[in-house]
Design a protein that fits this description.
Strand order of the largest sheet of chain A: 1-4-2-3
Number of domains of chain B: 3
Radius of gyration of chain A: 11 Å
Largest interface: A-B, 23 and 33 residues
CATH architecture of chain A: 2-Layer Sandwich
CATH superfamily of chain A: HPr-like
Number of strands of chain B: 19
Distance between the termini of chain B: 26 Å
Largest sheet of chain A: 4 strands, antiparallel
CATH architecture of the largest domain in chain B: Alpha-Beta Barrel
Shape of chain B: globular
Largest sheet of chain B: 8 strands, mixed
CATH class of the largest domain in chain B: Alpha Beta
Number of domains of chain A: 1
Strand content of chain A: 25-35%
Distance between the termini of chain A: 25 Å
Shape of chain A: globular
Helix content of chain B: 40-55%
Order of helices and strands of chain A: EHEEHEH
Helix content of chain A: 25-40%
CATH topology of chain A: Histidine-containing Protein, Chain: A
CATH class of chain A: Alpha Beta
Oligomer: heterodimer
Number of strands of chain A: 4
Structural class of chain B: alpha/beta
Chain lengths: 84, 557
C-alpha cells in the first residue's frame, strides 16, 4: 500500500468540480483508494465521500492506494489535484 | 408597494413583469428507483450538452458532477436500502440527500456549505421525477420578457429558460456564490438572492430588480417609479456604451484621466473582470488567508496568493491591506480576549502590532511576493505615527532576514495607510510625511466620525455619508495628500456610489477603488462628468450646513 500527504492548494478547496475530477481519476484505477483527513477515512471513488472530506485550502489530506496500480493511481491523483 | 431586500448577486437594473416559477406536479409518477435514476441521468446529460453549447465547458462541468453523484453508490445505495426497508421512494431520496448535505452544511467553509446545495439539488431532481413533476416549462405566448421569481432555482431550472426572454432572477434561497448567481452573470442579467420575504404573491406584479443594491420592488408607487426608472435608464445607457467603456481607461468628459481600481477578497475574484480595463487592485483584503484555516497561514502560501494577484494585474499595481480583524471576529491563533467595545478595541494594525510574529510573517510574504512585481502594502485602522514607524522597523528586520537567506525580496516597497479613523484624517497632513499613499476607507470613517454603528437601524439617520462632517474630512485628506504629493484613493462604499462620483471628483480625487461589479458603472459615470462643474458642486456641498442640504444639491443633478 502506498500513501502520500498533500496540502490542498486550490483556494476554494476540494469542491464540486475538482472533487468530480479527483473522483473520476480515482475510478480509472483498480486499487482501493482512500482519502484521510483528521483521522477520518473516505472512499475516493465516491464523489459524495470526496465532498464530505470537506477539504479547504491549506488542509492536509492523505491519499492511500492499495492494489496492482497503486503507484500510477497516486501519481495521477496528485497531478489532478495540482491542476485543480 | 413592497421593497424586498436580498443579496446583490449579479449586476444590472431591470423593470418588467414577474413570473413566479414553481414546479407543477404531474401524473407520470415514476416509483421504480432504478428507472427514476436513469431518467434523471439522461436529463442531467442533456443539461450538460446544453450548458456546454451555451456557456462553455467550465460552467457545464457542474452537470458532470451531478451525473457522477447519480451514479454514486454511496448516494444511491442508502436510498435503495431505505426503500427496501419500507420507505416511500420520495421520502427515501429526501432523507438521504438531507442527511448527506447536512454533513457539508456543518463545515466552516462557505464554499463547501454551498456544495450542500448541489446534493440537495440532485435529490430534488430525483424526487421530482419520482413524483412526476412537469418540467416542460415554457414562457407565456409572445415575446415579453420576465423577471423570474422562485423559492430556489437549480442549475437545471435555469437551463430550462429561454435566455432571450429573461430579465433577471430573484430567489428566496441562495447565496452570492450560488449557481443562480453564476449563471445570471454568464447570461448577463441581474440576480438578487436570499430574499427571505419572497413568495408567490409576487407573481404577475410589475416590478424593478436592482442587482447592484439587492432590491426587488413590487408594485412600485409613483415616487419609487421615478427613482428606479432613472436607474434602469442609467443601466441601459451603460449597456449601450459598455463595450467602449470596458475597453478604455476612465477620463472625465473634459479629458482628465482618473484611475479606477478594483477591490478583491481573493486572487480568483479577478477572473470575473473579463476584458474590462482597470487600474490594478486598490484593495486586496488579506483576511481570507487567515479565516479559512485553523492555523496561521504559512509564509509560502500567503506569498503565492499575493503573487498570483500581482501577476494577474501586472504591470498595474496591487495594494494589499494587511490583516484587518478585531474583537468582533475571532481568530483562534491570535490572543484575542473578549472586548467590551470591539470597534474601539484591539483591531487592525493595533492587533497586528501586538502579535508581531504573525504580522512579520505577513510582511515577509509581501516582500517576497513583491519581488519584480508592483505590490504595495496598506495598513488598516491607523491612528498614530508610531504604527507606521514600527511597521517600517519590522519591514527592515524581515528584509534583512530574507537577504541573509538569499531569498529575493522587493526593494523600497510602498507603504501606505487606510484613512478610516478621525485621528488619521485630522492628522493627515503629518501622516503624509510618513507614508507613500492614502486610501480612504469610508465605511469605518463615517461610522467613527458620526459615532454611529452602520448596522444599528435605530441610528440609521445618523450614519449618513452625506453629512458635511464626513465630506469635509474627506476633502481635507484629499487636499493634504495632494499637497504632500502622495496618491490618495477612496476604497469604501462611497467610491462605488454613483451619487458621490461628482463630489469626489470635484474635491480633487484622482483614484477610485470599487468592487468589480461596479467597475464599468463608475467608469461610465466619470466619463459623463465635467471636472470644472464638479468643482463647483463640491464647493457648494462643502458650504452646506447639514446632510439634507447636501442631498438636495446632489439630487438636483
Amino acid at each position: 500500500m502506498l500513501r502520500v500527504k498533500y496540502t490542498i492548494k486550490n483556494e476554494e478547496g476540494l469542491h464540486a468540480r475538482p472533487a468530480a475530477d479527483f473522483c473520476n481519476t480515482a475510478m480509472r484505477f483498480k486499487s482501493t483508494i482512500r482519502v484521510i483527513k483528521d483521522g477520518e477515512e473516505f472512499e475516493a471513488k465516491s464523489i459524495l465521500m470526496v465532498l464530505c472530506v470537506g477539504a479547504v485550502q491549506g488542509d492536509e489530506i492523505e491519499i492511500t492506494a492499495d492494489g496492482e496500480d497503486e503507484k500510477e493511481a497516486i501519481d495521477a491523483l496528485v497531478e489532478t489535484l495540482d491542476m485543480g | 408597494m413592497r421593497i424586498l431586500n436580498g443579496i446583490a448577486g449579479a449586476p444590472g437594473v431591470v423593470s418588467g413583469k414577474v413570473l413566479y416559477y414553481e414546479k407543477k406536479v404531474g401524473s407520470s409518477a415514476e416509483t421504480d428507483i432504478d428507472t427514476a435514476v436513469k431518467k434523471c441521468i439522461d436529463k442531467v446529460k442533456k443539461m450538460y450538452n446544453k450548458a456546454l453549447a451555451d456557456l462553455g465547458e467550465d460552467k457545464a462541468k457542474i452537470f458532470f458532477a451531478y451525473e457522477m453523484l447519480l451514479g454514486d453508490q454511496m448516494f444511491i445505495g442508502p436510498i435503495k436500502e431505505a426503500i427496501a426497508g419500507g420507505d416511500e421512494p420520495e421520502k427515501a431520496v429526501a432523507d438521504v440527500s438531507e442527511s448527506m448535505s447536512g454533513v457539508l452544511m456543518k463545515k466552516e467553509n462557505e464554499y463547501l456549505r454551498q456544495r450542500a446545495d448541489d446534493i440537495r439539488n440532485v435529490g430534488n431532481m430525483l424526487r421530482e421525477i419520482i413524483c412526476g413533476a412537469d418540467d416542460d416549462f415554457s414562457f407565456p405566448e409572445g415575446d415579453d420578457k420576465y423577471i423570474i421569481s422562485a423559492q430556489e432555482l437549480t442549475p437545471v431550472d435555469t437551463m430550462l429558460f429561454d435566455h432571450s426572454r429573461l430579465l433577471g432572477f430573484v430567489t428566496k434561497e441562495g447565496g452570492a456564490t450560488s449557481h443562480t448567481v453564476i449563471l445570471a452573470k454568464s447570461i448577463g442579467i441581474p440576480a438578487v438572492v436570499g430574499v427571505s420575504e419572497l413568495d408567490r404573491s409576487s407573481d404577475d406584479a410589475d416590478a424593478y430588480l436592482d442587482g447592484y443594491a439587492g432590491e426587488f420592488v413590487i408594485n412600485p408607487d409613483a415616487e419609487a417609479k421615478s427613482v428606479y426608472d432613472k436607474r434602469v435608464l442609467d443601466e441601459q445607457e451603460l449597456l449601450k456604451s459598455l463595450d467602449t467603456i470596458k475597453k478604455n481607461d476612465a477620463y472625465t468628459k473634459d479629458g482628465e484621466r482618473i484611475k479606477v481600481a478594483v477591490n478583491i477578497g481573493k486572487p480568483s475574484d479577478l477572473k470575473c473582470s473579463e476584458d474590462s480595463k482597470f487600474d490594478g487592485v486598490g484593495l486586496f483584503r488579506s483576511e481570507f488567508l487567515y479565516s479559512s484555516s485553523k492555523e496561521k497561514p504559512p509564509v509560502k502560501q500567503q506569498c503565492e496568493a499575493y503573487k498570483k494577484a500581482a501577476d494577474l494585474v501586472y504591470p498595474k499595481s496591487v495594494t494589499i491591506r494587511t490583516l484587518d480583524v478585531g474583537g468582533d471576529k475571532q481568530i483562534e491563533y491570535f490572543h484575542m480576549p473578549k472586548e467590551e467595545n470591539p470597534f474601539l478595541g484591539n483591531r487592525g494594525i493595533r492587533l497586528c502590532l501586538s502579535n508581531e510574529g504573525v504580522f512579520s510573517d505577513q510582511l515577509k510574504a509581501l516582500l517576497m511576493a513583491g519581488y519584480g512585481k508592483r505590490l504595495k502594502i496598506m495598513l488598516p485602522m491607523v491612528t498614530r505615527i508610531e504604527e507606521i514607524t514600527r511597521t517600517r522597523e519590522l519591514l527592515a528586520e524581515v528584509k534583512e532576514e530574507l537577504e541573509r537567506e538569499g531569498t529575493p525580496a522587493a526593494d523600497d516597497i510602498e507603504l501606505g495607510i487606510m484613512i478610516e479613523t478621525p485621528a488619521s484624517a485630522i492628522m493627515s497632513e503629518v501622516l503624509a510625511k510618513h507614508c507613500d499613499f492614502f486610501s480612504i476607507g469610508t465605511n469605518d470613517l463615517v461610522q467613527y466620525i458620526m459615532s454611529a454603528d452602520r448596522g444599528n437601524s435605530a441610528v440609521e439617520k445618523v450614519y449618513n455619508p452625506f453629512n458635511p462632517a464626513v465630506l469635509k474630512m474627506i476633502y481635507k485628506v484629499i487636499q493634504d495628500g495632494a499637497d504632500a504629493g502622495i496618491e490618495v484613493s477612496v476604497c469604501g462604499d462611497l467610491a462605488a456610489n454613483p451619487d458621490f462620483t461628482e463630489i469626489l471628483l470635484g474635491m480633487g480625487l484622482k483614484k477610485f477603488s470599487v468592487p468589480l461589479p461596479m467597475l464599468n458603472r463608475i467608469k461610465k459615470k466619470i466619463s459623463d462628468i465635467n471636472l470644472s462643474s464638479a468643482k463647483d458642486v463640491a464647493n457648494e456641498v462643502l458650504k452646506a450646513e447639514d446632510e439634507y442640504e447636501v442631498e438636495k444639491i446632489i439630487r438636483r443633478g
